[in-house]
Structures are given as C-alpha cells and as structure tokens.
Amino acid sequence: MTDLRSSKLQAFGSASIPKLVLMFSVPAIISMCVNAFYNIVDRYFVGQGVGALGIAGITLCFPIMLFIMAMSMIIGVGGNTLFAIRLGEKKYQQASIILNNSFVLLIIMAVSAFALGEIFMDPLLRVFGASDQTLPVASSYMWIILLGAVFQTIAPGMNHFIRSMGHPKTAMLRDIVGALTNVFLDWLFIIQFHWGIEGAAWATISSQLVSSLLIMHFFIKKSTPIKINRRHLHLHFPYVRKIFILGFPPAIMQICNSLMNAILAWSLSTYGNKSLQPTVSMTGGDIAISAFGIINSVVSIAVLPLMGFVQGTQPILGYNYGAKLFDRVRGTLKFAYIYSVAFMIIAWAAIQWKAEVFVAPFAPGDLNMQTVTAWGMRVFTKALPFVPLGMVAGNFFQGTGKAGLSMFQNACRQVIMLIPFLIVMPLFFDLQGVFMAQPMADVGAAITGLLLLRWHLKKME
User: S-S: 439 plus which of 318, 382, 406, 458, CB 3.0-4.6 Å?
Assistant: First the structure.
C-alpha cells in the first residue's frame, strides 16, 4: 500500500501533464456537465410548457435560491473542514459530533430560510424587479421551493462529508441521480401533467428529496464508519462557532453572487422597461429578465465544463509547487491556458454565429423573445474567450495555498468589477449596458489575473 501511494504521488511530479490533467478533470467535468444539462433542460421545459413568463419568474427567484445555497455552504464547507481535520487527527468521537452538529445546523438554516422567505418573499421579488405579471409566477414557484428548503441544504451540505470519508464517486453519483430525476419530473409535471410553474418547483424539490434520501441512507447504513447518531445531535457551541468561522469565508462569494443577481434582475427590469416594447402579457422588463434566464442557461453549457477542466489542474499545480518543480507548474498552466481558451473560442464562435438556434427551443413561436435574447446573448458573450484567463489564475492561487489572492481573483469577475459595471454601464447604454457589464468584467478579471500570475511566477523564480 505504501509503494502504491508513493508511486501515485510521484506521478504528480513525473507523469505526462495532459494525462494527469485529464485524469483529474474528467470526474469534475462530468459533474459540471450534469449541472449544465440539468440547468438547460429545466429552463427548456419551462419555456415549452409555461413560456417566457415562467422563465422570467424563475430568474427573479435566483438571488433568494443562491442565498439559501450560501447558507448550506457555510455549514457544509465549515463543518466538513473541521470534520476532515479531526479525521486526520484520528479523533473520531469529535468527528462524529461535528458531522451530527452540521446536520442539525443545516436543518436550522433551512427552517430559518423558510420563515424569512415567507415573510419577505413578495417585497424582495418586487425589489428585484417583479412586475404585476411576473410576481404571481415567481411567488408560486418560490413558495414551493421554500417548502423544500431543508432538502436544498441537506443534499449539498452533507455531500461534502461523503467525499471526506473517501467516497467521491458516491457523492458524484448522488448528484447525477438528483439532476436526472429533476429532468424527468420536469417533463412529467410540466409537459404531461400541465402543472405549469408549480410543476417546475415540485420537480426541483422532489429531486432534492431523492438526493437527500440517498445521502441520508449513506449515513445510516452499517458500513459507514461515522453515522448520524441521536446521541450527538444536540449542539455543541464550541464546534458550532468553529464551523461558522471556517465556513463563512468560502460562502462570501456565494452571498455576493446572490447580491449581484439581485442587482442584475433590478437592472434588467428597469432598463428593459426603458428599451423594449411591452407585449400583451409581458412588460419590457419582464422580457429582459426572461431573456437573461435563457442566456444564463445556454452560457452555462460552456462555462461549467470549463470550471471542471480548470479544477482538474489544481492538485497537479499544488503538488509541483510544493515540490519546487516550477517547470511543471508552468507546463500545467500553459496546458490549461491553451486548451481552455481554445474551447471558449469555439463556444464564443458558435454563439456569435448561431445564437438564434440556441435560443429558439426556450421560446417556441415567440419571435420577439428570440430576437431580444439572441441579441443579448451576443453582447453578453463578447468576451467569452477571456473567461479562462482569470479562472486559471484564480485556480492556481487556490491550488498553491494563496487563499487571499484566490478569493480576490474569483471575486473580480462576479463582484468587484461586475457590480460597478452593472451600475455604471446602463447609465450610458441602457439595456445594452446591462448585458455589456459581464464582458467588461471578464476582460478586467482576465487582465488582473494575468498580472497577478506574472508577478507571482517571477516571485516563484
């Protein structure tokens, strides 16, 4: 066993870099592709069965759903970090307490999200830009989602612990089963049963229930070394405090992403009403919000697999950086840059050339929506080839233990640069400025990442 482990570690410093990157990237790419597939098929069924108004309603709910995910991340990441440390120290009793306390905290977070959501949901949706037409749709969807908030926190939160116990494939399979279940139930509830937007919501929480049940089965079966145990379910506040301290920094990005989506929805509503002609059933702002929901789904097909590929380089960068094999560090970075940029150039060219083809399935028969969305998509993806430049740099900093630089670089694209651009650009270009904000942020994050990376590589020498 020792020789096997030694040979695997030595491979980081001697094996072919492309082979290593593919070895570590493929599982991450598969998970990301499943998420992208779920995202686009979910919106497809809503577009087919409900229409553009349904996509607008779901898009308005994004900030609230992202905030719930952030609450899950605080506990999942914070608890899992502490859990993994105690496992390494062979303090299994403490590890069991941490796991069980995290489970209880995830439930508390879900109940809190449900209570606060029920109180503030409609006012928040109005702030995000909901109109008289989209508010009932968004409220109907979000009310059901809040009913299943406990499954939204347990499924992703407890999956972290499965990975830490040495079962990454088990965790991945549970993600895949949940996503495929969602797709099937979307088809069943929306297309076959004609439940409309409520069908989309029931499909989402039902699939999360399935994922949660599979995850909980793992934690109660006999072969699992550390289980859900009634004796350890009462909260130990020293551990609770540490879980929040460790989990809050990674969740900051998700919280900021929620804020960014709220500002984006408001901007789309405000400047869409100024720039687009209303229809019988939708205001100009509703059309703009629905268009962005479609754009976001299509672009995720390119960006999520890219994230999986880039993440696959992280352990290779970390090992070779620690071993001071700096030529292999540069070789890994070069490989990551060449292939990720090439992939994004292909995605960019396809979108710029045939945006209408990607849009049509989401808005069948609605030529006005297709035209607006295709135009917005072309503007939104102008700088798509620049995305890997900043992403690879942020991943390098994370893989080599530069947590502060990693957080700063990752925040550049979605927060530090995007939010100011979202506020300023529409003042000069109206709705076009809203869509221009993302490519401007992509270019700025790419330049920042390359400069920081160049500085650090020189320092490395």
Answer: 382
